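Inverse folding, one chain.
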C-alpha cells in the first residue's frame, strides 16, 4: 500500500520510521503501569517534533509531493492514540489481514520458508527451548502479547504459533477499541490485505478519495497496478520465502492451526472473535 501511494502525483510514502517503534518500546517498558500525564505530554511533544522534522526533510527532498504517507510497523497501533494527539490533523489508515494470512506470513518468515522445520520444531516443542527465549528478547510486541493478562493463562502450549496468534488478536482488538473510543480519528479508512490484492488500483484510489487526497482525473492507474508485480520486501530480511521465485507456496494453516485459533480466540473472549474478523467501516469493492 505504501509503494502504491508513492506513485500518485502529490504523495510521497515513507516506510517505518523508527521513532514510532521506539515510543512503543518505551511504553512497553512500563508494562501495565499507566503513563503519568507528564510522561504522556513529553511523548506527545517528542512525536510532534519528530513529525515536524520528518515532514521538513521530505518536503525539502521533494517539494512537489506535499502529501506524506508514513507506513508504521504494526506495533505502533498500541501507541496510536499518542501519535494522533501529536499530529491531530493527520488522516489514518488501518490495513490488516485475516488471522490465517497473518499466521502464514509470520510463521513462514520465522521458519525461513521450511514447513518441515516448522512442523518438527512445534510438534516436538523444540521451539520452547530455542526460538521462544530469543523471540521474547528481539520482539517486544510479541513478548507483550504473550504476557498480556488475557493471554498468559491461555490453555495452549505457549510456543511460537501461540505467540503470533496472540499478537494478531491483541493488535486487532486495540484497533477495534480505538474505533469505538474515537471514531472521528480512528480510522479514516480501514482496508484488508485481500481486498487490496484483489482490486489493486481501484481500491487504492478509493482509499485516497476517502482521505481527501487529490488525484488527477487523468491519472494512469496502471502505475499502481505495476507495483503489485514486485515484492515490496524483496532483498530485505522481511521477504517471505513463500513468494521467492515464480510460485507461491501453499498455506500452512491446517486443522491443528484452526483449532489453535479457535481456542485462543475463545479464551480471549473479546470483540475480535473470528479469524476473519472485519473491522467497522472497512472499505470493500465488488468485482465488476
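Residues assigned per position:
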Amino acid at each position: 500500500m505504501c509503494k502504491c501511494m508513492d506513485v500518485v502525483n502529490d504523495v510521497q510514502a515513507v516506510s517505518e520510521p523508527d521513532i514510532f517503534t521506539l515510543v512503543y518500546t518505551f511504553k512497553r517498558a512500563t508494562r501495565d503501569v499507566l503513563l503519568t500525564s507528564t510522561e504522556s505530554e513529553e511523548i506527545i511533544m517528542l512525536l510532534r517534533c519528530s513529525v515536524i522534522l520528518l515532514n521538513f526533510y521530505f518536503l525539502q527532498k521533494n517539494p512537489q509531493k506535499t502529501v506524506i504517507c508514513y507506513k508504521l510497523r504494526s506495533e505502533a497501533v498500541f501507541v496510536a492514540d499518542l501519535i494522533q494527539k501529536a499530529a491531530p490533523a493527520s488522516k489514518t489508515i488501518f490495513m490488516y489481514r485475516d488471522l490465517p494470512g497473518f499466521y502464514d506470513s509470520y510463521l513462514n518468515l520465522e521458519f525461513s520458508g521450511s514447513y518441515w522445520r516448522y512442523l518438527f520444531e512445534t510438534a516436538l516443542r523444540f521451539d520452547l527451548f530455542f526460538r521462544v527465549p530469543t523471540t521474547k528478547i528481539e520482539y517486544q510486541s510479541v513478548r507483550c502479547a504473550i504476557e498480556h493478562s488475557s493471554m498468559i493463562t491461555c490453555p495452549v502450549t505457549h510456543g511460537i504459533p501461540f505467540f503470533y496468534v496472540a499478537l494478531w488478536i491483541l493488535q486487532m482488538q486495540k484497533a477495534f477499541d480505538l474505533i469505538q473510543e474515537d471514531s472521528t480519528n480512528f480510522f479514516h479508512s480501514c482496508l484488508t490485505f485481500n481486498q487490496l490484492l484483489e482490486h489493486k488500483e481501484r481500491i487504492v484510489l478509493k482509499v485516497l478519495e476517502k482521505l481527501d487526497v487529490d488525484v488527477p482525473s487523468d491519472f494512469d492507474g496502471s502505475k499502481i497496478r505495476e507495483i503489485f508485480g514486485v515484492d515490496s520486501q524483496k532483498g530485505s530480511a522481511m521477504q517471505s520465502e513463500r513468494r521467492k521465485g515464480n510460485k507461491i507456496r501453499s498455506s500452512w494453516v491446517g486443522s491443528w492451526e484452526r483449532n489453535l485459533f479457535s481456542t485462543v480466540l475463545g479464551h480471549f473472549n473479546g470483540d475480535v472473535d473470528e479469524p476473519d474478523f472485519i473491522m467497522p467501516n472497512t472499505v470493500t469493492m465488488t468485482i465488476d
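The mean pLDDT is 88. Residues 169 and 272 are 7 Å apart (CA to CA).
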